[in-house]
Amino acid sequence: MLALISANHQPNRSFAPTLRLTAELLERLAIRGVIELPWPDKRWLTASQGKHTLPFELLDWRYCWAAYPEAGLAELLEEQLKEHDWRVDCPESRFELWSELCFAEIENYAAYQLEKHQMDPEWAFDIEWMRRQVGRRSLARWKYIVWAGVRRGTQEKAKVGATNLSIRQAIRTEYIRRQDFVQGDSTFGAFVPNQKRPFSVLCEILVLCVLPIGDSYWTVVPSDWAESMMVSPGVV
Fold first, then answer.
1. Contacts of 14 (CB under 8 A, 6+ apart)
2. Rounded to an integer, what distance in angstroms lies between the CA atom of residue 164 and that of residue 178?
3. Domain limit, last residue, from 40, 56, 83
4. What are phi and psi for residue 3, nearest 5 degrees?
5. Residue ranges, the chain, pLDDT below 70
6. What is d(CA 36, CA 29) in angstroms, rounded to the nearest whole number?
7. Is residue 36 left, alpha or beta, with left meaning phi > 0 and alpha meaning psi from -120 to 50?
8. Do residues 79 and 94 share a domain?
9. CA-to-CA distance for 139 and 223, rounded, in angstroms?
10. Quick one: pLDDT at residue 231?
11. 236 part of a folded domain
């Protein structure tokens, strides 16, 4: 909810890494009675009192949570998130959120690379098999794996008689090969953006308020970090 409010004032930044995840998270909030949506449409066709619009995605929503007034809610949520010790306050669910956002980052990067090389961005869904393994490598490593896979796809695409099926299979095969190739702590095989700040508002809220990842968002291995930080409360 904090990310949703914050995103309203940042027109050049997405709410979440992918539109699919954005729609899914908004629906979760709607099911819990926190917001209302113009379902099945993206926008209300007429003026609606209290309506907000995510400026990047152009999706309408309206606050309706009876437990708290909308005024001052963002400040309250941010304060509560920062005060809670993530190690004792639902650490598993927070780690699950982190893994979900990491997967969305990879999916978004795959779609970008595919579109850049004039292939179907819908093929980004072919990385679904990575979901269970996403926490075992840093985002920078996954970006490299995706880049290498799409590059292999462009090589296959240039062959006489290449089909969409053969191109997709070549990409997937390269994903798997590179995944095994970049194991360990070597800095080889990692694409770290110059901008350490996460691109989406939700991911930034994660590193600022939910998990103390800081500037390590792209380089930390989620499973290793979680294991090293899972200590008893009060132990430094």
1. 7, 22, 56, 57, 199, 200, 201
2. 21
3. 83
4. -65, -35
5. 85-91, 182-188, 229-236
6. 8
7. beta
8. no
9. 12
10. 46
11. no
Which long-range contacts (C-beta less than 8 Å, at least 24 apart) are formed by 156-163? 157/117, 157/119
Q: What pLDDT is recorded for position 229? A: 65
- φ and ψ at 208, to 5 degrees? -90, -35
The number of angstroms, rounded, from the C-alpha of 72 to the middle of its chain's C-alpha atoms is 26
Question: Do residues 132 and 220 both lie within one domain?
Answer: yes
- 137 and 211 assigned to the same domain: yes
Task: Give me the pLDDT at residue 149, please.
Answer: 95
Containing structural domain, residue 116: 90-231
Assess whether 198 and 135 both reside in one domain: yes
Total Cβ atoms within 10 A of residue 98: 23
Same domain, 34 and 94: no
Query: In angstroms, how far is the first alpha carbon of the chain from the final one?
Result: 31
Burial group, residue 184, by CB count within 10 angstroms (0-12, 13-18, 19+): exposed
- pLDDT per residue as tens digits for the range 94-110: 777 888 898 999 999 99
Last residue within a domain, chosen from 60, 83, 106: 83
